[in-house]
Structures are given as C-alpha cells and as structure tokens.
Please model this.
Amino acid sequence: MARNLDLRKGNIWHLVLSLAVPTALAQAVSVLYAIVDRMFIGHMATAGDIALAGVGVAAPITSFIASFATLIGMGGSPIMSMREGHGEHQVALRIITTCFYLLLIVSMILVPVFFFLRDPVLLLFGASEITLPYASEYFAYYVLGTPFALLATGLNSFLINQGYSKKGMLSVLLGAVMNIVLDPVFIFLFDMGVKGAAIATVISQMFSSLLVILFLCGRNMTVPLTFRGFSPSLIPQILKYGISSFIIISTDSILLIILNMTLQKYGGQSFGDILITCATIVQSYHILVTYPMGGMTAGCQGLVSYNYGAGETERVRKAINSLQIFITSYSVVMFFFTLKFTGLFASLFSSDGNIIALSSHYMFLFECMVIPLSFQYVNVDMMTAIGQIRLSLPLSLTRKIAFLIATLILPVLFSAEAAFFSEAFSDLLSCITGTIIMRTQLGKILEKRKREGLRI
Model:
C-alpha cells in the first residue's frame, strides 16, 4: 500500500499504468454505488420499472451535488502536487486542510437547499405524478448523506495525486462492497424499497469517507491531513483549478436532467416514463464506460502536475502521450462490448422484454462514439493538470453545448428517441476540436515552461 512511485524519475509507462489502472478500477467500482441500487430497485416485486424511472430522475441531481467534490478535490490536489514538486511543503499542507473544510462548508449549504426543495425540483426535472413518490423518497434520504459523499470523493483526489492510488482504490472498494451487501438487506429483507437503497448508500459512503481520512492522516503520508492551516486566501486558486473538472461533471448531470425532461415532454404521458426507465439503464451503462476513463486521467494528473511543477517538460509530454494510448485502447474494448452485450446489461435492471430491447438499442446510439470520447478526456484533464484552465474550460464546454443543442433539436426534427444520439454527436465534435487545440498548443506551453525555469 506504500507509495513506491518516483514521479520525477520513474519509467513513464510504469508510472502511467501504476497510477491509471488502480484509479480506473476504483472509478469502475464507484459506479456500483449507482447501478447496484438501480439493479435491485428495477427487480422489486411491485412497480419495479416505475420505481427505477423515479430513481433515474433523482440520479442526475445527486450527481450534480456530488460534482462539488470534484470542484474542490480536483481543484486543490493538482496545486498540492505542483507545490510539493516545487519544494513548497508547507503550502501543500495548507491546501489539503483548506479543501477539507471547504468540502464540509459546501455540504452544509447543499443539504438543506435540496432537501426542502426536492419535490418541485424533481417534478421540474422529469418526474411524473406516478414516479414522484419513488423519486422523492430516494432523494430525501440520499441527500442527507451529502457530507460523506463529498468527503469520500473530494479527499480521494489527494491520495491519488500523492501516488497512493491503491489506497484510493481501497477506500472506494470498501464503500462499494458495503453497498452491494446492504442494498438487498434494506430493500428486500427490511422491506424499505427505494428508501432502503438510499440508506444503504449513505452508510457505505460514510465508511468510505472515514477510511480516506484515516489514510490521509497516516504517518507515512507525504502531504498529510493535519486539520490545521485553513487558508481562505487559497480558495480562489483552488476553485480556479477545479472549475473545468467541475463543469465537466456538473454539466453532465445537468444535461442528463435536460435529457429526462425532453424524453418526458416528447414521449408523452404513455411513453415518457418508459423512455426515462430506458434512459436510467442507458445512463448506468454510460457511467460504467466513462468513469474508468475519468479515473485514468485523474490518476495521472498528479504525475503530470508534479513534473510540470518540477520543470520536467519532456516527462510531461511522454506521460500525456502514454495516457492517450492507454485510454484509447480501453475505449476500443468498450466499443466492441457495446456491440455485443448491451442486451445482457439491460436485463440486469429489468425483466420486461420491451424495456430490455429498447434500452439495448438506445445504449448503442448513446455510446457509438466512445473512441473519440477518449481523446476529450485526455485533452481536458491534462490541460487542467498543467494549469491551463483557459484552454481546458472551453474544451469541456464545447462538448456540453453540442449535447445540449442536439438534445433540444433532434426530438423536434425526428422523435423523442432521437435524443439518445446527442451523446455521440457531441463526442465526435469535441474530439475533433479538442485534439486540434491540444496538439497545436501543448508544445508552446511546455516550451514556455522550460524558459521560465522553476517559477510557478
């Protein structure tokens, strides 16, 4: 479990694999938090498909709340790595402490806002009168666990960016395994339904967050969490670095909310809830495909940030190229998996043959451009890792705007089901624009860094 990684001198391919694989696995495991709930809920004896639709409406909102952990964790951890690589250990200590308290402050704001406004928010974002009771019950209990969710995700970035990717994976694995075990107990044994699924998730996130804090407070940690040195003056810089990653995650959630609203509107009273049930399954598959890609780039951010801070520009270039090869290879595998196994995946969530067939078809429409998407992840997250927010932010927004336009226009031109093609359209467009910008600007940025010496 020790670090055992020399970010400045170790072999680049070894470092990329050592950092990317555990964090990708950790992200794949973290998907179980969401999809295991949905699997059990979809197979409830009564109203399973309707309950699944209700949870599907709530899910993007809970993801939006969780994205604030990305704002703080992905904002503070690269700065911590740069400062540590630059020899500024005391500044690195203050950054991790400041982020810890920021996560708590944000949690205390989000919980009451979303708890008391949950029903109007859910109705606005795609719930029908039929699915609202399930959506509201699930969301109410889930949102109360927000502090644990934000701490577990936000602080995990500080483990990964110090090279402790295996510890980061273990903290996620603990929560996911607990969730798998507790879900059937609360849902079926205690007969608590969707409420039980939410409670099981909150308990699991609580233990995951406690393990992350325990690891960060360990004696062998390079930059430990000491709970001392909260520095408000560091907050603007943390938010500046985290805003690009936050926009990626939060707008993904917002766009899925808009997708649900569009499906409900154009699907009509008879077909809208069925489409949202299918969309819940499609979104479950989407995060299973994309979260590991986010894990790969997040795992390597510390490597890139540290070497950029140390002035090792050639190692930065090699790390980015190696990561691109690795993540694209993964996306090719997932493309062929999408061709062959979407029906099997859909059957995990429903026993209704019509919903399984529709979901399988929609999954292919949604994921058919997953290979180009791999370039978008590297372009945005590696620009963030070297502090180029002026580029990473527009790159992330390009994909979101394309998705939004397609989601709003395609159902008008064709049918409600055409909205599922929005993801593929935005993936291809953002890959083309992002890769052109990345390949034309990266060399200039690294050359400038070399000229500046070791100044941050």
Notes: The first helix runs from residue 12 to 42.
